[in-house]
Amino acid sequence: MNPIHEGSFDQPDEGILYVAIGWRMRRPLERSIASVRKFLNLPITVITDLDGIHHVDVVKKVKWNRTPGYAVKPAFIPQLPYARTMVLDTDTIILRSDAAAPMRLITDQYGYHAAAVQSLNGRTDEVRVLSCTPSCNSGVLFLRRSPRVRKAMKLWRQYYPGKGSEEVFLTRALLTAAVPTFWLPREWNDRGRGNQSQRKVRISHPKPIKSR
To answer: How far apart are the first and last CA of the chain?
Structure first.
């Protein structure tokens, strides 16, 4: 497969987005892409500063002069290359063919504009919207390219201070922009806590890359 490098092109209605900045992302990215190709029939776009990315549909090369880390997410995820985008961290692994089923939630049929899994980090008070709003985990996101989501993406960039975890600011942005969000079960973003039957896990997301 020869990926398209930037330029103008027609994009399908739905697909997968990776943001891979820094050489440490290459190996986990290749593994994650292989798992997508095994189980899902969706186009893949990669925003990256790496050369030689294979088995994807679109590669968008960017320059990043800072240390790679969480800041790349609010910088690049808001580009949302598809009308319905499944955003995956490079260290995620697809384990079942129904891993992309939440794409159907972010349609007019069900009315949601975003879907995510609540984080296990206990940052309830840090979201600073309501005390009952824990942050989502940004390693697996389903986002609809709608006016509300675009507003949330703009707010995410505004709220993020430029360093540290970006998840509480993403959650704050989704709530502030009144984005209808469906909270998925942990089987769609399994952090290996041992609470889920491995037969039911759709997306595995082991501990973070050390550089973050």
So the answer is: 31
What length does the chain have?
212
**Which pTM was predicted?**
0.90
pLDDT digits (tens, 9 = 90+) for 77-113: 999 999 999 999 999 999 999 999 999 999 999 999 9
Cα–Cα distances in Å, from 85 out to 115, 124, 130, 144? Answer: 10, 26, 27, 6
d(CA 62, CA 90): 17
Contact call for residues 62 and 71 (beta carbons, < 8 A): no
CATH architecture observed for domain 4-204: Alpha-Beta Complex (3.90)
Structure-block tokens of residue 184: 């998925």
Closest CA to 1 of 32, 37, 38: 37
Angle between helices 147-159 and 167-176 (to 10 degrees): 140
